[in-house]
Please model this.
Amino acid sequence: MLTGVAVLCCVPVLASALPATVPALTAHQLEDRILGSQRLSFSGYAESDATFGLPPLPAFSGVTPLLDGVTRMRVWQATPDRWRVDTLSDAGENDTYQIGDDTFVWDSGEELLTGIYGPEVLRLPRAADLVPAALAVRIIEDAGPGAELSLLPPQRVAGQSAAGLAVRPASPESTIAQADIWASPATGLPLRVEVFGRGVAQPALSTQFLQAGPWTPSASVLTPQLGPGTGFTTTTPAAFAGVLQNLRLVALPGRLAGFPRERSPVPQIGVYGSGLAVFAVLAFYSPGIGGQLLGDALDAGAAAVTFRDGTGAVASAPLVNLVLVQPSASDDTFLLVGLVSQGALEQAAAVLAADANAAS
Model:
């Protein structure tokens, strides 16, 4: 009996120590398999570890733990629009169910299930975005056809031999120097993703499955269940967007800091650049949420900066940079955040402040 228990306990250790062997694939063949893995049904347990180093802003309190710290996730996916991701913590869990265009969120602390009916075009980042399978596909798609691809030595991930793919964005303006992806060579399911900033030896974001495999979809797992004492409420995507529902629609220039403005599904958000060299511009009413954001950023350690036409705050991190600017003669506060250099965001903020003052 004791011998059998000892053998079972040693299995995971022995599996991780085995050499990784994968069939011969080209970088583009592995890329194609990773992109094709979106149709797979799978389940697993994953952990992400992020060290972005951005100041903790109360208005974005739900996002901060994802960008600085370890996030533990239990994942089930039937299709790209039918899945469930449970975020686990010492305080409880927060479960997200995707059922077509509708989303359901369970908060164990509040014992509340919230139904969000309709596609969430405007939302903050969530734990499901850090699942290796989702993050790897997004990186490859956003890197674009000009990205440089190369093979990495295989590794053992989640007890499996995984083939490695390095993705280097084509744009020198991107804060991302390289993303390393290890995936099952047979199915293409991404098992580990590491994202590196420029000039940094350690990944700013690492996420991996500790256990993953094929899964037969089950309605009982993918459908939220209301137990005794559980509350239920419904809302719209716009009302569930948190601080983003306070955005103002303002006129923005067609180009900022050399980046052209791209088409955005949300009129209130200006998107500049493309792929992995992109940043967003959001406008908030100054005396309200905008002024609070600026004050919170400075209180949290962001560096104060003075522009010719306003004041603001700057926070720099390996992957994401953030600038807030409050024009001296305008009622708007602009938040600029994205995967481009701090200098580019400061240059763009200076233009926005000047334009806002001129329009006032």
The longest helix spans residues 342-359. The first strand starts at residue 42 and ends at 51.
